[in-house]
Design goal:
Layout lengths: L1 H6 L16 H11 L5 H4 L4 H14 L3 H8 L4
Length: 76
């Protein structure tokens, strides 16, 4: 965001980021808590279709920030 401010020659500081109810980190934590603190593989363990969807999704997010975020919040 700072780069955009510099590009557009905006002379204001970048607003601080805070954990609001729409922040992805807060939503991921809430999802984890509401599912009895189970990871995604534990949740889809008994359903073949859900397990295959999770497997394909994991291939796509492997090595990305999303994977890092899910691991940090105990969903993987």
């Amino acid at each position: 965001m700072e780069a955009v401010y510099q590009l557009l020659e905006v002379d204001r500081g970048v607003p601080e980021v805070y954990a609001s109810e729409f922040d992805a980190r807060v939503l991921i934590d809430a999802y984890y808590q509401l599912n009895d603190r189970k990871s995604l593989p534990e949740l889809v363990n008994n359903n073949f279709l859900k397990r295959s969807v999770l497997k394909n999704a994991m291939k796509k997010i492997q090595g990305t920030f999303i994977e890092e975020l899910l691991r940090k919040h105990k969903l993987l």
